[in-house]
Design a protein that fits this description.
By secondary structure, the protein is an all-alpha fold. It is 62% helix and 2% strand. Strands 1-2 form a two-stranded antiparallel ribbon. The protein has a two-stranded antiparallel ribbon with strand order 3-4. Residues 118-127, 544-556 have a biased composition (Polar residues). Residues 92-132, 544-578 are annotated as: Disordered. This is F-box domain-containing protein.
Length: 934
């Protein structure tokens, strides 16, 4: 039927031209069109022979089937396509074509006689009738290039390949024909001859299809696996395994309908073959034929599917798995040296036996399996799970049930021994560079179920032990105090005391009885001090031989001496008779408490806590070597232990001790101290020793933090958000605050002592020689008074004790506060004296002595006050006849650097011995110069 039809023309048929109807005709196509995308999708579900028949229908369908991407996809499914190789081949072909075309152009130019400048040597090139035509692309040349590249020979023009699948001859029954021995060998290595060439993917796939498809199709049609052609063609098990591997790889490219069933049937055939080979391997394994059948069939399984079944069979039959209970018993590690003990020797023997047995099996693995089979990884995992994990779980459960400390030691010690054992394990030749990384992963897997419980118990154990240590110290102090009170009050007759209350009161107040002598204590900083580093590392503390006995150079825990709880650092002297009155007993109790300030917290307790924390951190730090999140948790655990140490020492021990010391200092009264036993301000001396002890503890913690956390990289001091860094700063702040509060109270006590010395040691005739009866007013002593000397000795001896034990800023503040309060105390003392002109020389000497002492403090601001005080002492040296000059001095504010006003200087001038004789003259002179102080 014709595809043309006439078009209706309006107005009738034109008679002007016979061609007019033809010009008006239109071609209308009635042929149906099917979308190419749907056709391409349908092709994916056709088998290869069906696609080749489809390609013969038309040119368009041929192009669709021959599309290179379709066959590249199949090669990719088999794992035979390398995109990088294809890109390099395409670039090489492009360069080759360009060079070929260039050489052709040069050859034709020579034939035509064209020179370099484009002119003909004899005749015009365009007039040469014999010049051949040149094209940019020649299919024959392209085919020849491909053939030459593939075979490595010279370029040849090969006949065009129709479909690429006609290299296989088939028998009429569909079975492969009898293959030559050369063909059977080449089929085994078929994938080694497949190249990644763009534009030739169909031909490359055709090689594989022609070699393996007949075996694949025959295998899925066989009812009996033994009748498969692959087993009749190849009789050697190694060749059979390699061919089955090739066919299995080829089956991945089967995308046509029903591929799942075909795949399952072929996998069943492979499974039957694998089972038969595994049975032979097992029999050889039982017979111990390592170098013979075991090696042979292990290689067969490796060629078949990687040898995983052979590895699993070897591991299950391994001697280290079968005889794991003979390597060691976990319960032998416990209670070996006593109840709750843990023996590291037993666990070490277990890991040593495991290492020896493991290395023996590694030697067998190297003999059996090829280098392509990494059998060591599943072997290590099975040994870790079935042998080591079972051993450790039994050990940990029993230790946790019986004794927590043994449990903690067992977990840490076995982890350390396990890590050490892994470094003695020998890898196989197929292990690769990640063998020890695999071991670390196995270790992490084994300890994963135990690490959380261990870290929790480790922290709780340290908290309980440190709390018990501090509680024991506090309990001993409380018992010591109660025993001391009981001893002092044991000889008191309360009825007699009530009848003679006034008498006993006068004896206590006016003549205080210090029942217990002041037991001398060697300062923790006297002689050669014990360094903080030595204390942290557990080295022996310095001791001093005294009369054949050793006295510790540090405060220690209270002990029991002669039936009475006392501090063990006190000499065992014979105790005097207890007091017989209640007030005397209370005074003795107060003196004993003031003496006991130095033992309110102890280096011994701090050392015990530090050593306990060190043990906990060292145990937990072992897990940092494991790596991963276990290492992160272990680092955090070490920081938490250090934080708990700071909290226990800072809040519970040191802060509480300083608070008690400040409370004892506030109850000190200089008047109640016996003059014969007075050697400075004893409570302040003991408190400053306590400050030194606190400073030593702080240094000890600094060394501990540096050695155990910073050097081992368990913490970062530069991370200001780190909890350990924040807690350490908080501990230092608590210590500074407590020391500052104690020093403030100590300064008050020191000034009370200064006032007491001034009141008791300053004689009236020091500043007024004629005041004493029988004294000569004309005798002048220009040296400083005894009271001033005692005050300077007392103040300087106490301020020097802080040098080197506290922060420089705190020391400067302390010295300045001492100087200011000393200045106020001296001003108050001057206003109580009566000073004559002759006695003013001793006063000036005293002021010079105070000024010289203040210079040693190196504080310029403080020095100005004592300069003013020194100038103030000059007003007593003015002769009574020079009242006007005295008035000028009083009114001169610049003379006293603005520290004393005229009114204050006037008040000091009233303490002159001749003031009532010169008062009117001085006041008139002051009125005269316009100064009114009244």
């Amino acid at each position: 039927m014709s595809a043309f039809k006439r078009v209706n023309v309006k107005g009738g048929i034109s008679r002007q031209s016979i061609l007019a109807p033809l010009r008006e005709a239109q071609i209308v196509s009635s042929k149906p069109v099917f979308p190419a995308e749907i056709l391409s999708t349908i092709l994916d579900y056709l088998p290869v022979p069906g696609q080749l028949r489809f390609a013969r229908v038309s040119k368009r369908m041929r192009e669709m089937v021959y599309d290179d991407t379709r066959w590249v996809q199949r090669l990719q499914l088999m794992g035979c396509w390398d995109e990088n190789e294809a890109r390099k081949s395409a670039e090489a072909a492009r360069r080759k074509r360009s060079e070929t075309l260039q050489s052709i152009h040069e050859e034709e130019a020579k034939r035509a006689g064209i020179g370099v400048n484009g002119t003909a040597n004899g005749t015009n090139g365009s007039d040469n009738p014999e010049r051949p035509s040149v094209t940019l692309f020649d299919a024959a040349i392209e085919a020849a290039e491909h053939e030459g590249k593939t075979n490595g020979g010279p370029l040849k023009v090969a006949p065009p390949i129709e479909d690429g699948f006609d290299a296989i001859e088939t028998s009429p029954r569909g079975r492969p024909a009898a293959y030559k021995s050369q063909d059977t060998a080449s089929r085994i290595d078929i994938f080694a001859h497949v190249y990644s060439l763009r534009g030739f993917a169909r031909q490359e796939y055709g090689k594989v299809y022609g070699a393996l498809a007949p075996f694949y199709l025959d295998a899925i049609r066989c009812e009996n696996h033994t009748h498969a052609t692959v087993f009749r063609t190849y009789r050697d098990p190694t060749q059979q395994a390699r061919m089955l591997f090739n066919i299995s790889k080829f089956s991945n490219s089967d995308m046509s309908e029903g591929w799942q069933k075909r795949k399952e049937k072929f996998d069943a055939l492979v499974g039957a073959f694998e089972m038969a080979v595994s049975k032979e391997f097992e029999q050889a394994l039982d017979a111990g034929d390592v170098a013979g059948k075991m090696r042979k069939y292990a290689h067969v399984l490796a060629y078949l599917n990687g040898g995983h079944s052979g590895v699993e069979l070897f591991i299950s039959k391994s001697s280290i798995i079968g005889s794991r209970y003979r390597l060691g018993n976990a319960l032998d590690c416990l209670n070996r040296k006593g109840p709750g003990s843990f023996s590291t020797e037993e666990s070490y023997n277990f890991f040593s036996n495991v290492s020896t047995a493991f290395n023996e099996q590694v030697g067998i693995i190297d003999q059996i399996f090829p280098t392509s089979v990494n059998a060591i990884v599943p072997f290590v995992q099975r040994v870790g799970k079935a042998v080591i994990s079972d051993y450790l779980t039994t050990l940990y459960d029993e230790a946790h049930r019986t004794n927590i400390e043994s449990y903690l030691r067992a977990v840490s010690a076995t982890c350390d021994q396990f890590l050490e054992m892994t470094r003695s394990l020998r890898p196989t030749s197929a292990s690769g560079d990640d063998f020890y990384e695999t071991l670390d992963e196995v270790i992490a897997t084994i300890f994963e179920p135990h690490i959380d419980l261990y870290l929790k118990e480790e922290l709780e154990f340290f908290k309980k032990k440190s709390s018990a240590e501090v509680n024991n110290w506090e309990k001993q102090l409380s018992e010591q105090d109660a025993s001391m009170q009981s001893m002092f009050m044991s000889n008191v007759n309360r009825q007699a005391d009530k009848r003679d209350f006034l008498t006993s009161f006068k004896k206590v107040v006016m003549m205080p009885v210090n029942v217990l002598p002041t037991f001398p204590m060697s300062s923790p900083f006297g002689g050669k001090p014990a360094t903080a580093k030595a204390l942290v590392n557990g080295e022996a503390l310095a001791t001093t031989e005294i009369s054949g006995s050793q006295t510790s150079t540090r405060p220690s825990s209270p002990g029991v001496i002669n039936g009475t709880t006392l501090s063990v650092n006190r000499p065992t002297t014979e105790l005097p008779e207890p007091p017989t009155t209640e007030l005397a007993a209370k005074a003795a109790i107060m003196n004993s408490r003031l003496e006991g300030i130095r033992s309110l917290f102890s280096i011994e307790v701090a050392l015990n806590l530090v050593h306990t924390a060190k043990s906990s951190i060292e145990r937990a730090a072992v897990f940092v070597k494991v790596g991963g999140h276990i290492a992160s948790d272990a680092r955090l655990q070490c920081e938490l232990v250090f934080i708990s140490l700071l909290q226990t020492l800072g809040t519970r021990h040191i802060k509480a001790g300083f608070d008690q010391a400040v409370d004892h200092l506030s109850k000190y009264k200089p008047k109640e101290v016996d003059e014969q036993q007075r050697s400075g301000v004893t409570p302040l001396v003991t408190f400053l020793e306590l400050v030194n002890v606190g400073d030593l503890i702080q240094q000890m913690l600094d060394v501990f933090y540096e050695q155990e956390l910073i050097t081992t990289k368990l913490s970062d001091r530069n991370d200001f958000l780190n909890p350990a860094v924040k807690e350490k700063k908080r501990f230092e702040q608590i210590l500074d605050e407590r020391v500052a509060a104690g020093l403030n109270k100590g300064i008050e006590v020191l000034m009370a002592e200064v006032e007491y010395l001034n009141a008791t040691s300053q004689k009236p005739q020091d500043f007024n020689p004629g005041a004493a009866s029988g004294g000569d007013p004309d005798v002048m002593d220009i040296g400083p008074s005894q009271a001033a000397i005692q005050v300077i000795e007392t103040v300087s001896s106490h301020t020097r004790m802080l040098v080197g034990s506290t922060d420089k800023n705190m020391l400067d503040v302390f010295n300045q506060e001492v100087g200011m309060r000393l200045f106020a105390a001296l001003c108050k003392h001057l206003k109580r004296q009566r000073i004559s002109v002759n006695g003013s020389l001793k006063l000036i000497s005293d002021m010079n002595l105070y000024f010289t002492y203040i210079q040693t403090l190196k504080n310029e601001d403080l020095l100005q006050f004592f300069k003013a005080l020194r100038e103030l002492s000059q007003i007593y040296l003015v002769d009574p006849a020079d009242a006007k000059e005295l008035a000028t001095i009083i009114a001169d504010g610049d003379r006293f650097h603005g520290i004393f006003r005229a009114e204050e200087v006037y008040q000091f001038a009233e303490r002159r011995a001749d003031w009532y004789q010169i008062k009117s003259k001085v006041e008139r002179a002051m009125y005269g110069i316009g100064c009114m102080v009244m």
